[in-house]
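Annotators were shown the component list below and the corresponding predicted structure, then asked to write short factual statements about the assembly.
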Amino acid sequence: MNLSEKPPIAPVGPVLYSNSRLLDPASGRDERGGCLVEDGMIVALGPDVTVASAPSNTNVLDCDGHCLLPGLIDMCATIGEPGAAHRETLVSIGNAAAASGITTIICTPDTDPVVDDIALVQYIQQRAELLSAVRVQPMAAITKGLNGEHMSELGLLAEAGAVAFTDAARAVTDATVMRRALSYASAKGLLIVQHAEEPSLALEGCMNEGELSTRLGLKGIPAAAEVIMIERDIRLVELTGGRYHVAQISTAAAIDAVRRAKARSLPITAGAAPHHFALNETAVGEYRTFAKTSPPLRTEDDRLAVVEGISDGTIDVIVSAHMPQGVESKRLPFAQAAPGIAGLETMLPLALELTHNGHIPLLDLLRTMTARPAELLGLPGGRLVKDAPADLVLLDLDAPWQVDASRFRAKSKNTPYDGRPVQGRVLRTVVAGVTVFDAQAHAEAAE
Amino acid sequence: MVPITVSLMTGPARINFHHPHLLGIEGLSASEIETLLDLGDHYVELNRRDEPAEPLLANRTQINLFFENSTRTRMSFELAGKQLGARVINMVAEASSIKKGETLLDTAMTLNALHPDVLVLRHRDSGASALLAQKMDCAVVNAGDGSHEHPTQALLDALTIRRRRGDLDGQVIAICGDILHSRVARSNIHLLVTMGVRVRLIAPPTLLPPFIERMGVEVFHDMHAGLKGCDVVMMLRLQTERMSGSFVPSAREYFHYYGLDYAKLAAAKEDALVMHPGPMNRGVEIDTDLADDINRSVIREQVEIGVAIRMACLDVLCRERGKARKQNTEDAA
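Structure shown to annotators:
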């Protein structure tokens, strides 16, 4: 039995999550209490919300002191639909997300066909509504067909439900195209998301350029390819006032550039993927294609800069950067292998490493996957407050476990973390008041 | 005629090499390299005396799988295998299903079903032989992978130098040319640095890989300065497609600054040895008269030593496999 398969049964009457550690990164709330949910919304929460105070028909779920936090919002994941359902489907990605505490997936438009038309936005929304255990919101292409030339219908796409705009794994290289996209988007407050890599410097590169790439005889991508693109774009943001977001930042120099731009109050934000703070380039070691990513894994100094960037708020959001790849595109010589990590199911535990090893306080960390992405994308979720949608995660913060790729719910299992010991296990995931994942029921079903 | 079987007693006393594959020089110790060179020396002598080597590879199958054109390396491996009594099968990419889109690993799995003992691989991608080694049950010998390594070439270069100079330790050796794309250069750097050689690299900055100085070498951009006092000059081939403005402005400019001629060679020691892995671009990286000089002196020797060093490599790898086999049989019993 797979509980996260649709359609789960909506509870009758209110549900009380009692005896929990309430965590709301947006307000800084961290206290013992209960959370009362009705009709898919949070109707009351706090220390006074107890079994005694709840209406008589309430279903009570004792949280046993575990953390109750807003459902995570993953601002960057690639899904296979449409066009590559063999890699990932809305069903598989929904199940994977639900089991990992992610209640909203923001997906990239590099599908086949490309999401550059309102019909595609609607198609994904409708299919996700029907098939996916969690909310799925598409980003749309900045340029038609991701060709880097002609602007897509940014306004109409946004009205249809596109939450942001990106050319996914392709950088918008033409400065005029980027200038106009930022300029046009600024009138409507739309967010432009850039894959920050100057392609003429990344030419055929497949890993970080440095001593290791020299030893392995692999073509490298210099750190400068990232910072050059970001510094150019910062100038264009200055020129246009458009809202600009770096999808995944990976180098110390680029983080520094963003930090300086923020100090000047420019509307610039950045995201980072767990592999850029949980791994460095040495993971590529003996030509391990599972550690091939775009942008590539960088040096230890860069990794530390990413941690520092998250810590001081230069990096706003942590994203899974889920990029499903089948064995056929990974079991190849390194240069030929496709980049990407199936990151959905390891995003939260890897991020929690930063808290467990004392780098980042828990609420600050959770903010990067809840309130902050909600804010950037204008979504109602990401907060644990009265009248917010009841997208919730019940988390056993300290539970130790080992990553096991064979137990991934995602269709593609391309992970470099197989066997890695982590801490923090999702016990239950709730979307709009409906439980879409229950670890206990899952464990029982598995037996 | 009674075939004289030369036992190992006449070869190096101790074989210190315990790897299942030969994927690169990086990671080999000085004594392992020494073992291969000593055994190579032994086979040079044996081949010269025209005595048949002990058929150490009798009933063994060696597959030469070449995805890039290479006549001399493939023939050298073929001859080496045959000298040791192996069944040698040559597979050339053009003629096989690889052309039909079969992946490297699928090809490997098919070949694995033939139960070879040794697979010799030449491939355009760095790491291809490491990938195959993970999936094959046999010993894998890297005969050149992308810009990564070409270990047998480095071993034969080293043995050539050692035979001429008696010892590698303390020699000053310059490697000149397209180091960025060269697997020969990387293998040579690893080997020579491990053996105590002072290695100098001479190339324009665009043909040097980043952080190469961290591999224990001195970097020069000027031939005269770099060649000063050198015992050996190793020239690398510069491929024509890299000469037209992408890495260097032109073949003419390249030859002017980095081509080896008698004038530049004068900076090196008087008896400096000049080597080239071939095939040479006359008038691009080497003056044509000088090339003919080298042809007379070293090339023939390098070909001969190439076969011997590959015999040494096949020999040690099959010994390792023999041990593993024996171990398996004992374990099973």
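Statements collected:
1. The CA atoms of residues 118 and 157 of chain A lie 5 Å apart.
2. The radius of gyration of chain A is 21 Å.
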